[in-house]
Write a structure and sequence with these properties.
The structure is a homotetramer. The first copy, chain A, is 24% helix and 41% strand. Chain A is of the alpha+beta class. Chains in contact: A-B, A-C, A-D, B-C, B-D, C-D.
Chain lengths: 260, 260, 260, 260
């Protein structure tokens, strides 16, 4: 059968990224406690396409994924995955982003009851024309923010709300940063952190902690930025925070980029 | 050209609803202040299809909408629209739902500054085989809820959050209920209501009001239910509330249906 | 500490459903091939609340879930889960819906290469005041639809698109229907079915199959309805189909409810 | 009352962007035909915050928006808006993005019937520390793509689908590019374009046109890139295309950035 993708193209345009998006699969992920967990993942994968070729071979992305499937789930190292993509698709560069649902067991502050929290996370990697590799680790972490202005001016109470912090960090290949640690860094920067299971004594503790610890989105942003700057392993990062204000129907929002 | 839709079908199945979904258009809507507003709307429209016919004529839904377009926007009465659909598509019954973005001007409680709040609303109508007409008015209204338990057990503060109340009501054809009034009914049932524009004195007022007025989702639900039950114009309703708990990553949730 | 939830309420309103929503957890699910898979799940859980009580005890829903956690994931039988909820929360009725991401291995039609497809599915259960139990199985299944009208009137080609079929079925407690079988029933009702991995010979096969097998959303709906009606185990069902028309920016849509 | 936002901050971090997000309002927008249309808009607005200050004054963003409200809708020039933000918030730089729903009347190819198509569009502007202004115009435009490989290898038919093209362009301040023209540029680059209203003769025309004009996402991307490169007014652009493959449950995807 004719290979239309291999036909010659005359438009003289090298394509930077072409591939597939929203490929869903069960990803086996290594955790800090050494026990792998199978999580739901969604992949975006691409290669560069030289100007001479009409199209890439999209089915090969799925084939590389499927080669790693064992016992119902798929596990791999991102850099190794990109190398295999480059080989299989004969491309000079490769890119992939794997969004996934990650779970961490947390302990309630007083009752010490354990429950699971879920976080939207991702691995993102680029392997360029010189085989230089860049890796990004990303996560969305919910925290509580309690408004310092509202606390200051009100006779009692203070508006507070759930806020979502998005972080994306990169670090050198010979280093490793656990998602669990990145998430803890952010959770410790809110007015309080969130839990799935809180008994009455725990609810009292997190309520009072938030009230003692009022923070604007500016404060959370600055505290996360300081901690990430102080971690010398981290070579660049982006932080974004969005608070679902309980007194407004819009969100307070702040963001920052940093690179050494 | 052959009319495939008009071909005979032999599967012996009357289809209850077939039509189009996610048709976007600029809807001209009448407001209580007598000034029409053009809003963004999304339509779902269907007819019943007798077992004898293979398919309906989908383009006619768009034609009926387009017949009402004047000066860039489209305005109509829901019942009249359904009658026109029935005629144009030769069907025995017709159904439509128009979701739209509605704006109301609100005044901040102390500064009296005015600003706009946006609400997701809808009109929904059914005209059945006997030309009996049923109309539903729906809206999603954000409010603040402040947790009575958290307030009671904590030395200071209380967790609070944005909560979304969904209401759907039906009333008799000879009655009229304004969206503005339905929204006010719900907004007055939260711990506090939301505003787009609040200056410092307003923020103090809404913070203190919420603290003085703690409510579980159960409380908001019951208060809305009581008010709707007491409105004799309303023949049936559904209420649903979902609070984006500031101390959890899941939501508190309650719902209720009622019919006279 | 004061139990605010247990305080007396005087509004005289029994609440039909109150609980939690969007609780995320790793669900262990039994498959037809006997190998359990851990999948990402999102729970909505509620109880009824008698008029005498101010509030329910929301943390207990999470506690019941957590009691079932072993080796990182949570597994249970829906009816048994509802019984435990009723007991733990002292309620007369209980309801739960578990949405989850389900994977099935499919074989490409010609190359026979295997790959995974992901489906949004759910279990839904109600245990009422008399301990009568009702169970629903739901799934969203993508198929290809190729327009019979477009094929008939055009000299060549025919517009086709991805369409999403939503099914929800209920069956008696002493019966069992596998998700794998429900999904197959729907996939065999489109113009063609979808795959994650198709090589060139497979693409030719699915393209030609769709062209030989043109279907309106009406046709897919009727074919699914016929098959479900003929399965005597099924006591009631709902089917909805939405096709993301490749020539329109809106969707063709149809739905049907059935009960024996 | 104490102005907490004006308190001194000691963390030594200049914040790049802080403001509000998801502010909804009715935007009056100028069209090529000289008739303004009121559309639904959602704003993200921010300023930079020097390290000395604890917080920004979020309510002022809403105040600047509200100053422009007349007869129920809000209209402004993006650069002028940013200047006003800078003044009102005493900031050195300002940023805003206004997402909105835009409507264009299109004519069916044969019947010449007119109907409205809706497009997600945005204006984005940055006014930096030197009052240098940068403006971006963005739009999401759906087109049909028909697979060249599927057509080539199949005896009849070819899979096709709705694809979404996202473009973002910037141009010099003394130039102007109409959204209507940008959208046309993209729509003319698909296998066929989409319409809201097509009668049978139109459906034949678009079906045949797509079959005569097969395109991979790579082809659509290259054709859009060529046209934008050739428009000397445009100083930089980004193009992204995502096709909802009718034979897969994932999407084909490609993207490109360009700057003169």
């Amino acid at each position: 059968m004719n290979d239309v993708q291999n036909q010659k193209d005359t438009r003289n345009i090298d394509i930077q990224k072409v591939g597939v998006k929203d490929v869903e699969f069960p990803l086996s992920i290594e955790r800090k406690n050494n026990k792998n967990l199978t999580v739901y993942a969604k992949a975006k994968m691409s290669v560069s396409l030289p100007k001479e070729y009409k199209g890439t071979h999209m089915s090969r992305f799925i084939e590389v994924l499927e080669e790693e499937r064992k016992e119902g789930h798929i596990g791999f190292d991102t850099k190794d995955f990109l190398l295999r993509i480059k080989n299989k698709l004969n491309s000079t560069s490769a890119y992939a982003k794997f969004d996934f649902k990650f779970f961490i067991e947390k302990e309630a502050p007083k009752s010490n009851l354990k429950s699971l929290m879920c976080y939207d996370c991702y691995f993102e990697g680029i392997l360029d024309d010189n085989n230089d590799y860049k890796f990004y680790l990303g996560a969305k972490i919910p925290v509580t923010t309690l408004c310092p202005c509202s606390k200051e001016i009100s006779n009692y109470g203070a508006h507070n709300q759930r806020a979502l912090v998005k972080v994306k960090i990169s670090y050198n290949e010979n280093e490793h940063i656990w998602l669990e640690d990145l998430i803890k860094t952010v959770e410790s920067s809110g007015s309080s952190e969130l839990f799935s299971l809180l008994k009455r004594e725990d609810e009292k503790a997190v309520t009072e902690r938030a009230y003692e610890n009022p923070k604007f989105v500016e404060d959370v942003l600055r505290d996360v930025v300081l901690k990430l700057q102080n971690n010398q392993k981290i070579t660049s990062f982006e932080v974004e925070i969005e608070a679902m204000e309980s007194i407004h129907n819009h969100n307070a929002w702040a963001c920052q980029k940093f690179s050494r």
